[in-house]
């Protein structure tokens, strides 16, 4: 169940971050009634998830909640009264505890969330959320470094001090250095879950790099005026287009995986690329078609009724 929940959350992030740009779009852009229904149903699932876990002290849970709340907020989701206030208080409490323990308290995605709400990221309940970013050497996980770039961009002018500009350049250099000759961005340190769940020797390495490649391109998007970044993004898009399956989705360790679809969808939204772009349409199927096909095939036959879409199994 936990693994399925993680995949559902990843799918939600892609769906609701795309919603503001696509809900009014023409049908050719790929947003269907079925996708809208999935958005509405899974939104309620994630609201429940955040509500039940907002007070957890685990840093991973705080990161998950920050990114989910950001997606809910930016898509204009219908949430219960007081939902955002309660989340922000829980985040402030976590920051208080981190400070008392002498920790930097960097939560990937928290800056994006607080900034999106129009709050001061340098004085959030007495905490400067950008302080931890002044020491980028303390952030060594590849995906966390990508998140730091996204957070620095979201901070606006507050993220453009001399210290933070130095951190930004450090992270940009690290991200760009991970790109391989075929266009993918590879891990320098494999995440623990990958090491534990799979024998990396059993699969081509590219099956594990689609998510990081898409996230890296998303983080690089604000710097497209730099020739080296523009070239890197162009090569990555070519690589991802070549990896797309006839179903429209993407594969991880030999199987289609909704987390990869989600990352590519978010990347396309950041770049302003239509769902119907020919580079990411295979056999008339878009990435969103791939996502919808994944959860239908995964949940449709085994799910109990009543229920809808990939939410059925959890009802």
State the helicity in percent bands. 55-70%
What best-fitting shape do the alpha-carbon axes yield? globular
Percent of residues in beta strands? under 5%
| Biggest sheet layout | 2 strands, antiparallel
- Cα(first) to Cα(last) distance is 12 Å
Provide keyphrases for this structure.
single chain; disordered C terminus; mainly alpha; 2 strands; two-stranded antiparallel sheet; disordered N terminus; about 325 residues
Question: How does this structure look, described?
Answer:
The protein is mostly helical and 315 residues long. 55% of the residues lie in helices and 1% in strands. Helix 1 crosses helix 2 and helix 6 crosses helix 7. The longest helix is centred in the N-terminal third of the chain and has 21 residues.
Secondary-structure map:
Elements: H1 2-22, H2 33-53, H3 59-75, H4 83-100, H5 110-116, H6 142-154, H7 162-177, H8 192-197, H9 210-220, H10 227-243, E1 251-252, E2 255-256, H11 258-271, H12 287-299
């Amino acid at each position: 169940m936990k693994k399925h929940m993680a995949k559902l959350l990843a799918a939600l992030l892609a769906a609701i971050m795309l919603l503001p740009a696509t809900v009014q779009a023409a049908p050719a852009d790929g947003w269907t009634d079925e996708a809208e229904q999935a958005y509405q149903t899974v939104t309620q699932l994630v609201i429940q998830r955040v509500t039940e876990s907002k007070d957890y002290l685990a840093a991973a849970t705080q990161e998950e909640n920050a990114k989910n709340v950001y997606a809910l907020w930016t898509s204009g989701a219908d949430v219960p009264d007081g939902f955002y206030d309660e989340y922000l208080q829980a985040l402030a409490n976590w920051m208080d505890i981190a400070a008392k323990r002498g920790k930097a308290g960097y939560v990937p995605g928290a800056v994006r969330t607080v900034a999106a709400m129009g709050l001061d990221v340098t004085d959030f309940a007495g905490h400067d959320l950008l302080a931890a970013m002044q020491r980028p050497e303390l952030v060594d996980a590849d995906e966390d470094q990508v998140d730091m770039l996204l957070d620095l961009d979201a901070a606006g002018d507050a993220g453009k001090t001399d210290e933070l500009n130095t951190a930004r350049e450090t992270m940009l250099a690290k991200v760009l250095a991970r790109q391989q000759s075929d266009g993918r961005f590879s891990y320098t340190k494999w995440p623990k879950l990958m090491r534990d769940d799979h024998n990396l020797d059993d699969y081509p390495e590219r099956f594990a790099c689609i998510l990081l490649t898409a996230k890296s391109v998303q983080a690089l998007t604000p710097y497209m005026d730099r020739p080296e970044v523009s070239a890197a993004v162009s090569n990555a898009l070519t690589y991802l287009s070549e990896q797309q399956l006839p179903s429209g989705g993407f594969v991880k360790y030999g199987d289609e995986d909704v987390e990869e679809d989600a990352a590519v969808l978010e990347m396309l939204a950041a770049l302003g690329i239509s769902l119907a772009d020919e580079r990411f349409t295979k056999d008339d199927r878009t990435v969103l078609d791939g996502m919808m096909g994944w959860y239908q095939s995964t949940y449709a036959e085994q799910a109990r009724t009543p229920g809808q879409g990939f939410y059925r199994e959890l009802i």
